Amino acid sequence: MDDTPPEEQNQDNHTKQIGKGMIIIAWVLIFAILVWFFGVLEKNKRNPNQNVSTQVLSSGEKEVVLKSGSYGHYIANGKINNTKVTFLVDTGASYVSIPERVANKIGLKKGAEMLVSTANGTVTVYATTLGVVSIGEIKLFDIKADINPHMDGNEILLGMSFLRDLSITHKGDQLTIRQ
Q1: In angstroms, what CA-CA distances link 88 with 6, 38, 96, 139?
Q2: Pairing of the two strands 62-67 and 96-99
Q3: 3-state DSSP assignment of residue 47
Q4: Are residues 101 and 23 in the same domain?
């Protein structure tokens, strides 16, 4: 027979319940931290160019070196009209092509309708002009682009309307862009 007074037994039970609660909270926190950590790791594998740096060469040229992501694409953060965006370098695209949802966030206006050929067939897009497009410290002004209501996601195709006046070199898993 237990000679412990009922008040002490209640206090022991209460202490045990608090201990169990703390263990559960600790496991939930550990799980949340792991989910966050692996999410950041995956994001960096897909877009290893989160913070694009620019090197100014002795010739005065500006140079940005991009690393390919986990799928072999060149994805990099940049800006359109001082709004942060994510670019997917696409030398096969004639224009910078912006998903309509992203264009609305940036505040771009739809211009004339145009038909363009894509991997998924011919689609209608809307002409627009971007005041300034930058990747690292490479900046170009008055860039022709299109707003594509058929594009999913938030990545902007960085096409030849931006790239055509730049020097592009591909070697291994690096893409060097010079202005």
Answers
A1: 69, 23, 10, 16
A2: unpaired
A3: coil
A4: no
| DSSP-assigned states of every residue in 54-94 | EEE-TTS-EEEEEE--TTS--EEEEEETTEEEEEEE-TT-S
pLDDT, tens only, 3-39: 666 676 677 777 788 888 888 888 888 777 777 766 6
92-133 pLDDT, tens per residue? Answer: 999 999 999 999 999 999 999 999 988 888 999 999 999 999
Q: How far apart are CA 85 and CA 20, in angstroms?
A: 45
In angstroms, how far is CA 5 from the centroid of its own chain? 63
Please indicate, yes or no, whether residues 38 and 61 belong to a single structural domain of this protein: no
Q: Give me the domain span that covers residue 100.
A: 54-178
Determine what percent of the chain is predicted with pLDDT higher than 70.
89
Domain count, the chain: 2
